[in-house]
Every structure is written in structure tokens, then in C-alpha cells.
Amino acid sequence: MSETRSALIVDDERDIRELLVMTLSRMGVRCDTASNLGDARNQLQRNTYDLCLTDMRLPDGSGIDLVGEISQKYPETPVAMITAFGNVEAAVEALKAGAFDFVAKPVDLPVLRDLVRHALDLQQARKAGSDAVASRLYGESPAMTTLRQTIAKVARSQAPVYIAGESGVGKELVARTIHAEGARADAPFVPVNCGAIPSELMESEFFGHKKGSFTGAHADKPGLFQTAEGGTLFLDEVAELPLPMQVKLLRAIQEKSVRAVGANAEHPVDVRILSATHKDLAKLVAEGKFRQDLYYRINVIELAVPPLRERLEDLPGLSSKIMGRLAEAQGRSVPTLADDAVQALRDYPFPGNVRELENILERALALSDGDELTASDLHLPRNGGGSPDTHQAAAAAGVDPRSIDPRDTATSALPSYIEEIERAAIQHALQENRYNKTKTAQSLGITFRALRYKLKKLGID
After folding, report:
1. In Å, how far from its chain's centre is CA 31?
2. Which residue segments constitute the domains of the chain, with CATH numbers given?
3. Sigma-54 factor interaction domain: from which residue to which, for each copy (predicted)?
4. CA-CA-CA-CA dihedral for 395, 397, 400, 404, to nearest 10
5. From residue 455, how far is each of 94, 233, 283 by CA, in Å?
6. How does pLDDT run across 134-188, given as a tens digit for each residue?
7. pLDDT in tens, 367-390
8. Does the global pTM surpass 0.90?
9. 228 phi and psi angles, rounded to 5 deg
10. Residue 230's closest CA among 179, 192, 264?
């Protein structure tokens, strides 16, 4: 690290200040110190810092106030909070106030070094910032503009983010964008569908296991937390976690360490947690189906991804981008949408959201040879073609919603159910083989080409 990097350390305990100065100095970071809020404000007015570390309790006020001021007045300076051990409420409050991360007393030096590295890496990540976010999440509507702006802010933090939205809106894309625009971009992004892992395998999948710890454990195996070390763990469909696993996950997030099945000791992990579900998580908490303490821990920052029907002004441009990508893959020229096609799309409720729009356009391109797509080429279901719940379930399962006959949802449930089983088997095989597609295909007994087709068909990234 360059000697030009600088940090402000705010703590009223001299021993803590000296420890932090010594640690950061060895990392090539020049340090200034302050023992109270007043001193810190004076230092911030006179100097520009690449990082600020502040204690929670100061003689003349709360470190939370300093976090808020720095977030407002000096947004380019990441600020981390030093909290008392086990004070989760204070840590969460600091993250909501705009803190980049937190570290507990007594300070664990390896954890501190990781925090400092991530904070300083943000300077590089910010250079590509807003342009990269815009390229991933298209839309000129106010809802999408606000979403991109919020993503750009939370990407600079280490706070857990909960992404809420209906099936098919692009929650994983949001998670990947947060990861790609943050300080952990060069580390792994590990997505896991919590509903696809059998409950009896969950602990082993998340935390790993030691050889001989149970029947079939023929070798040590790292878990998803270890695989995501230094990066991001994305818990998709987090509402599907059974209550016993929620307890273990909460402990892992709070303690920043995991214990593999059959291990005698815990292993520290450095992972940022992003989570998502299409269900109403707050309602599940009220019903006792999801732990309130875990809900508050993963929902430090909530991002709501708008459904497509609430941003219809984005439809023409979004459709053009999707058709461009599909046409390139098919080696053909990009068709245009006729006026009646655009109007038909505007009139359709899109219960399956962006994923359903992609399905509709992909089918239209496959069945049409012309340079213009009309409303009849889209084959949209009449009157929305059934209930939103049915279509959302179909879109989530990778089923073309237009294949559902609203007069006979019992008939359509069978292929949807079969595809859900196929999806779960493929996702489990991918996780077992650490997302190596060649090995995954071999373990499933299918060709690599067949696996690629199924991944695309089922919407598995």
C-alpha cells in the first residue's frame, strides 16, 4: 500500500489509539489521531482521509454522530465504527448511519487489517462506479434511477443488504452489481438458493465438514462461507431457511466465524452477506416463521426492486436491449418492435416481470424471420393469462408463463413441479462441484452442451 494513504483514528483510550496507529502504520497508512468529537471535526476540516476509525463512546458525544457527519460532508471517506464486544445493536445502528463496517473490542488485528484493505480498495472501485451500475441495470424511470443511486451508495459499505422484490425482477443482478461495484469485486461472489439445499445437508453446505464427520464424508470439504472468503455470499430465497439453520446462520454472521461439521474449533471468515426473497419477510417474522434477530441482522439496508408494471416507460428501451442480446446470440439482425407490439407490452401486467419479458421476446425472435415484431408475434396471453401468483411461480421455475392455461392450472402444475425438481438437482450438483460446469455435467450424467441448455432454460446463472 502506498505511503500516501491516510487514516483518522478517533478514540479516547490512548492504548487503543496506539494499537491502531501501530497496525495501520505497518500497512503503509499514515495516521492522525483524535480523542474526542471536537478534535475529530477539526482534523477532518484540515485534512482529507482515506479512512476513519471511530469509537462508539466519546467524552463529548457518540461516534454515531461522527459517522453521520462524515457520510454527509465527506462521502469519499469510508468510516468504520469500533464497538463493544457483542453490542450488535450499536453495530447495526452504525451501519444504518452510513458506516462502512465495524470492528469489536478487543480489536482482532486480522479482522482490522481486512477491514482496512477493503476500505482502501474502495478508491479503485469508485472510479468505474456509476457508469458500470447503469450498464447493468437499465431503465430511465424514476424508480430505476433511484435504485441505481442507492446501489452505488450501498456498494461502498460492508453492511448486509436485503433485496426485496417479486420473482423475475432481477434481485440476483442487483446483488451481483453491489458486489462488482464494491471493494470485494476481485473476490468471489457465491450465490446460493436456500430453497434448493436439503435441510439435512444445510450445515455442511454452509460451513463445510471434516473427513469422517458423517457417513459419506470421505474428505474435508469447505462450505459456502469459506468459498466466499473475502467476497460476497448471496443468500437467495432466504425465507426458505428452516428455523434451526437460521440460528446457526445468525451466529456465523455475528461472530464472523464458522465451525465445520466435525471440527473442534471455529474458523474466522471475512464475507459480506446479501440476501433476497420474493416473500414478505416481515410478515413471516410476525408469523414466527422467520427469526426476528436474524431479520434485523440481514436487513440493515433494504433495497426494493420495482416490478416491471411500475416502470412501463422502460419497456421500449429494455426490450431493445434484450432483443439485441438475443439477436447477437442467434447471429441475426436486431428486429424492431412495431407500434402495436409496444402497446401490447404496455397493456400486459407482466406477473413474471423482466424474466417473463425475456421469455416472450426470445420466443418471438425464434418464431419470426422478419425485421419487425408485431403484437401477434408476441403471443401474449389474453387478460394476463392467469393469476399473478401462477405466473410468478412459473417465471421463477423457468417455465414460459404463456404455456399456462388459466382454465387448468392443475395441468400446468406438473411440468412446473418437474422443472423445479430438475432445477434443485442441477443447483445442488453445481454447489457440490464448486460451480465447475464440466464436473457438474459429468456428475449428472449429461453432456456439457446439455447442461448449458438446461442452465439457460431454467434461468440458472
Report:
1. 33
2. 6-107 (3.40.50.2300), 129-304 (3.40.50.300), 309-458 (1.10.8.60)
3. 137-366
4. -90
5. 40, 21, 32
6. 556 888 899 998 998 888 888 888 889 999 999 889 999 999 999 988 888 888 8
7. 887 889 999 999 887 655 443 444
8. no
9. -90, 10
10. 179
